[in-house]
Write a structure and sequence with these properties.
- The structure is a single chain.
- By secondary structure, the protein is of the alpha/beta class.
- It contains five helices and six strands.
- It has a six-stranded mixed sheet, sandwiched between helices.
- Helix 2 packs parallel to helix 3.
- The chain starts with 5 loop residues before the first strand and ends in a 6-residue tail after the last helix.
């Protein structure tokens, strides 16, 4: 296992028409899910980095801050919510929006407790979800205004 997420850049460059990178960090404990999400996100015009653990989320986001993080709460080594709290320690990642992929049967209420002090935008998509729904959630998160640093 590597120290940080592996960038998946084959296919789309991930650059928007203005030349700005649209990088998504995807974290799932399921390797096949990571691969499928990477393919769909690249097709949607995003550069993708992958992480299998919460520790990889932190190291990868700090090394190269993403535009948005898409993750599961139940990641190994460091839960997704804990990884986000760790990212608040860094100015470059403090306000990166996050989208949690949550099993349909799970309650979302615990996520209300995740509201970090940084005004980070946190959204939830329920599994199973379509790539279209995830892409819409990402676009909405990217379009949301962020507080001035």
């Amino acid at each position: 296992m590597t120290a940080g997420p592996k960038a998946e850049t084959a296919g789309s460059s991930g650059a928007s028409p203005g030349g700005e990178a649209r990088r998504v960090l995807v974290a799932s404990r399921d390797r096949d899910a990571r691969r499928l999400l990477a393919v769909g996100l690249r097709r949607g015009g995003f550069e993708v980095a992958l992480a299998a653990t919460g520790k990889e989320v932190v190291s990868g986001a700090v090394a190269k801050p993403p535009a948005v993080v898409v993750l599961e709460r139940d990641l190994p080594h460091l839960r997704g919510d804990e990884a986000l709290k760790n990212l608040e320690s860094f100015a470059s990642t403090r306000q990166v929006p996050a989208i949690f992929m949550i099993d349909h049967s799970r309650e979302v209420e615990p996520l209300a407790l995740l509201r970090p002090s940084s005004d980070r935008t946190i959204r939830v998509v329920r599994k199973p979800f379509s790539m279209k729904k995830l892409l819409e959630a990402i676009e909405t998160a990217l379009a949301a205004p962020r507080p001035e640093s």
